[in-house]
């Protein structure tokens, strides 16, 4: 077993270090921020020039009317795109349909590499008639949005999106090294939870393309799968689908799959206004005590719930028969990886001499990583929650900042949070390698200060107190069951 874990350590480092040889990433990487990409590398083709030459003007009111899965238009940089036929094949999942009939310029730029702009030409059908749309009171980009866009362009040009391979190789060595230590020290509970935590952060980095650039066409993310399924027991297909939605429609009532906790917790009274929210006896039992159950459930059941949603996602989608070939491949690979994970976990656990120690090992190691789930929820709960209309009125920058909270931590404890203490910067720049988030933070603060956008940043204890207080105030929104 020790030899196997050692091989895993070497394999993980090799995958990151030799990605160019394996053609799993870009041909070259650099960690020097001063090394600027050329303007053409950043900007990609100018869609607006193409549209102005070849296409008619399209009124905003017409764009808005094409807002269904069977008839989906959207706007990127004033160019109108018909993505109806492409939507089922979108590598990021169904999230693209959430923006049918809207301007998705900032969402597109946040979640895609600049090179992807070249592929939009095939969907372009016209350019937005700005004069008419302004007359129809279409929201213009706010001054905060314009500054955010300028900053995003600057970061791309100055090389901030190029990861440091040395940084991530070190992180991989630490994570897998702790795994080896867990075996060498006869399965001490803390190291397994610690190494899982380190690997979880690397999975997050890899799945956000923060370690390696995605393959052309958005193919299978081999590194994220290697780290996520065999070593963490997670479905990458589930993560991409749900996490993409979370980033794009953060905290939208009952639509953000990673923050829809009813009937256990009510996180906003707006959830009660959603048409499909049906209050039953379980809501009436759990919500009134949610401020009491919040931390225990996260610590005790957080990891187990992650297994459950991964497996249920795979079973549900594979049995539905509606998946495309590339989606089926990804899900089958997830199953292979998860089987490997649980087989290894079982073999590791059975090395302990008796049942009592085996149970204690499993519980303590899972509870240790349960704190990760607590950290993630503190980054968003007890902030602001917006409806679809409110999101679009705020625009992407202000919406992301106001639905997110940073955690202020001591300098020595950044390793414990994996860069996610800078949750605001991460949500604004999802593909930015985590070692640059701290550098970007003051730039975001400045924009928020100039334009009156609330920027939340508090200590871990204060964040927990805010969340528990908010949950307690919301606990009375649903009456407990009555006797008789």
Q: How would you characterize the overall build of this protein?
A:
This protein is mainly alpha-helical and 484 residues long. It has 22 helices and seven strands. The protein has helices at 2-17, 19-22, 39-43, 47-54, 60-65, 105-111, 130-135, 143-157, 165-184, 190-207, 222-232, 236-248, 281-286, 290-320, 325-349, 355-378, 388-394, 396-402, 414-417, 423-428, 437-451, 460-474; strands at residues 57-58, 67-68, 71-76, 79-82, 124-128, 406-408, 457-459. The strands form two sheets. It has a five-stranded mixed sheet with strand order 1-5-4-3-2. Strands 6-7 form a two-stranded parallel ribbon. Helix 9 packs antiparallel against helix 10 (190-207). The chain is globular. The termini are far apart. Mean pLDDT is 85; it is low at 1-45 and 133-138.
Helical residue percent? 55-70%
Query: Counting H and I runs of at least 4 residues, what is the number of helices?
Result: 22
User: What structural class should be given to the helix and strand makeup?
Assistant: mainly alpha
Q: What is the typical, i.e. mean, pLDDT?
A: 85
The end-to-end span amounts to 58 Å
Widest sheet: strand order?
A: 1-5-4-3-2
CA radius of gyration is 23 Å
> In percent, how much strand structure appears in the residues?
5-15%
> What order do the helices and strands follow?
HHHHEHEEEHEHHHHHHHHHHHHEHHHEH
- Strand tally is 7
Shape: globular
Low-confidence stretches: 1-45, 133-138
Outline the biggest β-sheet: 5 strands, mixed
């Amino acid at each position: 077993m020790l030899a196997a874990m050692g091989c895993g350590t070497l394999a993980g480092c090799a995958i990151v270090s030799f990605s160019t040889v394996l053609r799993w990433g870009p041909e070259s990487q650099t960690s020097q921020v001063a090394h600027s990409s050329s303007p053409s590398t950043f900007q990609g083709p100018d869609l607006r020039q193409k549209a102005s030459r070849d296409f008619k003007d399209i009124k905003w009111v017409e764009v808005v009317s094409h807002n269904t899965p069977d008839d989906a238009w959207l706007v990127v940089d004033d160019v109108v795109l018909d993505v109806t036929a492409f939507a089922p094949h979108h590598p990021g999942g169904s999230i693209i349909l959430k923006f049918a009939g809207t301007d998705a310029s900032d969402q597109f730029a946040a979640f895609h590499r600049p090179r992807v702009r070249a592929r939009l030409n095939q969907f372009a059908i016209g350019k937005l008639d700005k004069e008419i749309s302004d007359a129809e009171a279409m929201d213009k980009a706010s001054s905060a949005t314009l500054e955010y866009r300028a900053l995003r362009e600057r970061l791309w040009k100055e090389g901030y999106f190029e990861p440091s391979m040395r940084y991530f190789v070190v992180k991989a060595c630490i994570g897998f090294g702790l795994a080896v230590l867990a075996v060498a020290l006869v399965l001490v509970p803390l190291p397994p939870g610690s190494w899982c935590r380190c690997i979880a952060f690397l999975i997050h980095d890899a799945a956000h393309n923060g370690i390696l650039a995605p393959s052309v066409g958005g193919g299978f993310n081999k590194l994220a799968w290697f780290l996520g399924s065999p070593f963490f027991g997670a479905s990458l297909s589930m993560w991409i689908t749900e996490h993409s939605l979370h980033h794009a429609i953060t905290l939208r009532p009952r639509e953000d799959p990673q923050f829809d906790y009813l009937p256990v917790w009510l996180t906003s009274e707006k959830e009660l206004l959603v048409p499909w929210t049906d209050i039953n006896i379980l809501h009436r039992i759990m919500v009134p005590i949610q401020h009491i159950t919040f931390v225990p459930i996260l610590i005790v059941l957080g990891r187990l719930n992650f297994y459950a949603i991964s497996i249920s996602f795979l079973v549900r989608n594979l049995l539905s028969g509606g998946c495309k070939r590339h989606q089926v491949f990804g899900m089958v690979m997830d199953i292979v990886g998860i089987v490997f994970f649980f087989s290894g976990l079982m073999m590791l656990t059975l090395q302990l001499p008796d049942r009592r120690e085996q149970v204690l090992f499993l519980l303590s190691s899972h509870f240790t990583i349960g704190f990760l789930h607590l950290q993630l929820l503190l980054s968003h709960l007890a902030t602001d929650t917006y409806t679809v209309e409110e999101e679009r009125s705020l625009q992407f920058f202000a919406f992301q900042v106001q639905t997110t909270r940073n955690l202020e931590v001591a300098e020595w404890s950044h390793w414990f949070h994996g860069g996610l203490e800078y949750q605001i910067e991460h949500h604004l720049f999802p593909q930015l390698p985590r070692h640059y988030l701290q550098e970007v933070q003051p730039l975001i603060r400045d924009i928020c200060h100039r334009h009156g956008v609330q920027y939340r940043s508090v200590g871990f204890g204060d964040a927990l107190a805010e969340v528990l207080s908010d949950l307690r105030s919301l606990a009375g929104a649903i009456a407990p069951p009555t006797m008789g």
